[in-house]
Amino acid sequence: MHTVELSPKVFYQRIQEYQEAQLLFAGIRLDVFSHLQDYSSPGEVAAHTGYHERNLRLFLNSLASIGLLDMQNGRYKNKPAADEYLNRNSDTYLGDYILFRERMTGLEHVEERVRNGPVAEVEQSNDGLGVYDFYTLAKLTAREMYTGRVQSFLKAAECLLNKNEPVKVLDLGGGPGVMAIELIKNYPGAEGVVFEHPEVARVPEETVKAAGLEGRIGIVAGDFLSDDIGKHYDLIIASGILDFAKENINSMADKLYRALKPSGYLYLVSHDVSEDFLSPKESIVGWLSGQLDGLNVLLCKTSIDSALMAAGFESLNKDRIAGMMNNLQGEFYVKGQGNE
């Protein structure tokens, strides 16, 4: 006799969530959301796309059932979030980014890897560029960063940096360089550097040029673990890179400390991995495919914090940034005075 609390429903729910994800991906690939800014019938959408009207109707009905579309009198329209992020006509369209993330973190080979182990070449080199397409990720991430990450970062920076004074910023492993671009746009006396791997550096070159900031933002291509990253920065932005420093975390923390001016700031975004490597599940599951292939990646947040404190950093008092810390993806540290 099973107790009421013991039920297989949790597994059925996983199947449902998987099927709903499949519907989302299919909807993006079929680009149906770009035809549903206003209420439209399946026949009208079929006329524009050439899709089979009967099956399109069934598909749209399923999208409505999971909350992506609204349906009235047999006509369908995007719900607000779908229109904002899944409609290709939107300035904040994320469809291609979502599909890329699904491919990048897919687990279709998990059974093979568990049975047979990692790829020997990947395990030996421990080079993420051999597993992940960071160039395409950087290109597609640029638009995603404007869905809250940039805005909250700029609000917090206003509490720390004086717009009337010169500011020198380093966007380390900055992908498209959006953080540095938007900060420098908002600070008349600011200049900076986006430091990226040679295989990715072309992306920030393009975004900086598009922003008309070539004279104020330089692009440096290299390996931040081994190469010089420059000196005398007022602010260093390090988004999702220290998690991969592994045995170099202490030397990397020291390098960041020495690259800052006295009382300079480090803005750190990490994956916040717990010491038992069980949370957050988004990081544990999201990086599993690469780890199964043989990559030795991810550091727990405690190890990162310990290295930063040992280098001389101090976690910034949240009161100094007027409560904006709660809206940030990362957190700020300030350079202490003890290790110079």
Automatic annotation (TrEMBL):
Matching CDD domains: AdoMet_MTases
BP term (GO), one: methylation
O-methyltransferase C-terminal domain location: 168-273
Domain O-methyltransferase dimerisation: from-to ranges: 18-87
Gene3D superfamilies hit by this protein: Vaccinia Virus protein VP39, Winged helix-like DNA-binding domain superfamily/Winged helix DNA-binding domain
Pfam families: Dimerisation (PF08100), Methyltransf_2 (PF00891)
Gene Ontology MF terms: O-methyltransferase activity; protein dimerization activity
Keywords per UniProt: Methyltransferase, S-adenosyl-L-methionine, Transferase
Superkingdom of this protein's organism: Bacteria
The protein's name in its UniProt record: Dimerisation domain-containing protein
Annotated source species: Desulfotruncus arcticus DSM 17038
Upper lineage: Bacteria, Bacillati, Bacillota, Clostridia, Eubacteriales
